[in-house]
Design brief:
about 290 residues; alpha/beta; six-stranded parallel beta sheet; binds NADP nicotinamide-adenine-dinucleotide phosphate; Rossmann fold; about 15% strand; globular
């Protein structure tokens, strides 16, 4: 029989793509777990569900992902992102399952000017990043067999994301108004379908350890918005570059968070496509 894989956050943006992509492979038996199956902040529910289902691998995507809201809900952020990961890791330890924990570029402070490698020292600037780092540490403390996958700037069909937000705003903005988008944060947009295939490659290679995975290439949010408008045929909408300080958002974000994916490439012999190609694909396949 094939490997049994349980995905947490199965109705989320990444989780839903992971369930359909891993589920389409005959070598895997998939269980998509949602909050209705177990709440990851509940140790008993989490460990019991994992024991009853006894997967070989757990891909833990469930998370409190509202970066600005995490600033005012610090306790909830740590409860879901750090304690939740700890509960999932304990459940995996009980049944000897391998855990794949999804983490973020926001564990870094953005002070580097070349891509972050897996061994760089984390220093989160916001509560979300701090709580996700807490999750990473719990996984590393509890388990020997784990993967931590850091990714960035996700967009996918089953969730609100930067691309869907820009498209919605483009439909309502009328001249002389325009979209103002920050141009002083640089990162790599990543399509959840591409990330799911990349995760599958690491599973197939039975990899362990920390890995960066994003689409290739990088841009600022402003440049990202320009391409979204161009590729969706909304060239008439004007977009203006602004500085992060002008937005006054609750959570600080790293000004530079490009992740070096060469460790992933070396082990899988695979390179993710450029984010612009992934974006075109996403736009063609979205209603
Ligand atoms: N989005 C990004 O740009 C980004 C960037 C880097 C890394 N990541 C990481 O990538 C992963 C996937 O992100 P995403 O944007 O796909 O997430 P998402 O769409 O926000 O989905 C998160 C899922 O987690 C579930 N969840 C939240 N709290 C839970 C709880 N207490 N118990 C059980 N389930 C719970 C949510 O269920 P409900 O709908 O019921 O709340 C939701 O289905 C996360 O680990 C995130 O930290 C995301």
């Amino acid at each position: 029989m094939g490997l049994k894989i349980l995905v947490t956050g199965a109705k989320g943006m990444l989780g839903s793509d992971l369930v359909s992509i891993l589920g389409s492979k005959k070598e895997y038996e998939l269980i998509g777990a949602t909050r209705g199956d177990f709440d990851i902040t509940d140790h008993f529910q989490t460990t019991q569900f994992l024991r009853e289902n006894n997967p070989n691998i757990v891909v833990h995507t469930a998370s409190y992902t509202k970066v600005d809201d995490c600033e005012k809900n610090r306790e909830m952020a740590f409860n879901v992102n750090a304690k939740g990961a700890e509960n999932v890791a304990s459940g995996c330890k009980n049944i000897n399952a391998k855990l794949i924990y999804i983490s973020t570029d926001y564990i870094f402070n953005g002070n580097k000017n070349e891509p972050y490698v897996e061994d760089d020292i984390p220093e989160p600037l916001n509560v979300y990043g701090d709580s996700k780092l807490g999750g990473e540490q719990a996984v590393q403390n509890i388990l020997n067999a784990f993967m931590i996958i850091r990714t960035s700037w996700l967009f996918g069909k089953k969730g609100n994301n930067f691309v869907s937000t820009i498209l919605k705003q483009a439909d309502v903005v009328k001249p002389p108004y325009h979209l103002s988008i920050v141009d002083d944060q640089v990162g790599s947009p990543t399509y959840t379908i591409d990330l799911s295939y990349a995760i599958e490659k690491l599973i197939a290679h039975n990899a362990t350890g920390v890995f960066n995975i994003t689409n290739s290439g990088y841009c600022s949010w402003y440049q990202f918005a320009q391409k979204i408008l161009e590729y969706s045929g909304k060239k008439g909408v004007k977009v203006v570059p602004i500085q992060s300080g002008q937005l006054n958002r609750p959570a600080r974000r790293p000004s530079y968070s490009i992740l070096d994916c060469s460790k992933f490439k070396k082990i899988t012999n695979y390179t993710t496509r450029h984010w612009e190609e992934a974006l075109k694909d996403y736009l063609q396949n979205t209603d």
